[in-house]
Amino acid sequence: MRDEPCRTIGFAGPAQHPAAQALARQLGLTLRVEPAAAELLLWVHAGGLELRRGTAAVRCDFTVPQLAQRLARGRHDLLRALGARGGERLRVTDATAGLGIDAITLAHHGHRVVALERCRITAALLADGLLRARQGPPAIAAAAGRIRLHCREADGYLHSLPTAPDVIYLDPMYGEDRSRAQPRLAMQLLRALTAGEAAPAEAPGRLLTAALARAGRRVVVKRPLRAPALPGPRPHGAIRGRTTRYDIYGIG
Ligand SMILES: C[S@@+](CC[C@H](N)C(=O)[O-])C[C@H]1O[C@@H](n2cnc3c(N)ncnc32)[C@H](O)[C@@H]1O
Question: What confidence score (pLDDT) does residue 186 get?
Fold first, then answer.
């Protein structure tokens, strides 16, 4: 597993101490009673888990109204890109789950999602969001129940899959144009998690190759609208939105 520059966990009060202690052990973080404000750290409070630095914070919360509005939209470009035929429920592997907005969108529309996230801290935030979503309003609880999260590097996991998922979905990079999905400071925190980790330039292309070798029907790749396709074979089609493009690679 990769090293992130978040090495500390703090907690809001005595009630959160056991949870913070357990996470510190699980994630190999240092538990501090009074962490420095400027530090990038995980923070356990009554509402759940968040990543914070100073006044900026990011958490995974599937119960916010903006998400409910997104989920209510039946004709989301991501859903069109999947190519499900007439109410079909697909098995989708979201190989770059992040904070799970796309995964919950897919699951809310009935698809079964295996979510892979290689960054331990991001995966912990997502696990916390899913846990709370399962205790939330029925529709969101049902969607969260259709997501299985693994903290794994996708390339290796995809190679070892015994059966092919119908669709493998990739959204490998937090780009500059994504600031609407999360407040700007929150995006900076998420990027800070992987700062200093020299992601090899060929990594997204390698991930695409692994996905193309394992998907049953298609691979869908999310890209900024005007960005080039990932290195590798040319997509067979694309769905274009206002700021985002979904490149589609058919199999066979
Ligand atoms: C742009 S974010 C994904 C956002 C996500 N689609 C959402 O809706 O929240 C990309 C995430 O993919 C993860 N990632 C990138 N390459 C990966 C790989 N090879 N295996 C697993 N996770 C990966 C990164 O750690 C990051 O959290």
Answer: 74
Q: Is 130 helix (H, G, I), strand (E, B) or coil?
A: helix
Q: For the chain, which residues make up each domain, given as ranges?
A: 8-58, 65-250
Give the CATH number of domain 8-58: 3.40.1630
Strand partners, 114: 93, 148
The tokens describing 246, both together, are: 């979904």
Predicted structure pTM score? 0.93
pLDDT for 251: 87
Task: Give pLDDT tens digits for 20-73.
Answer: 999 999 999 999 999 888 899 999 999 999 999 988 899 999 999 889 888 887
Specify the CATH number for 65-250; select among 3.40.190.10, 3.40.50.150, 3.40.50.300, 1.20.1090.10: 3.40.50.150
**Residue-wise pLDDT tens digits, 148-185:** 999 999 999 999 998 999 999 999 976 644 445 455 67
Distances from the Cα of 41 to the Cα of 15, 57, 60, angstroms: 19, 10, 15
Straight-line distance from the first to the last Cα atom of the chain, in angstroms, rounded to the nearest whole number: 33
Pocket probe for ligand 1: among 6, 117, 209, the residue whose CB has the most ligand atoms within 8 Å is 117
Distance CA 94, CA 146 (A): 12
Q: Which atom of ligand 1 is nearest to the CA of 99?
A: 9
Task: Measure the CA angle with vertex 152, ends 224 and 105; round to 5°.
Answer: 45
Say if ligand 1 is within 6 A of residue 99 CB: yes
CA angle 80, 86, 92 (to 5 degrees): 55
Tell me whether strands 147-150 and 112-116 are parallel, antiparallel or unpaired.
Answer: parallel
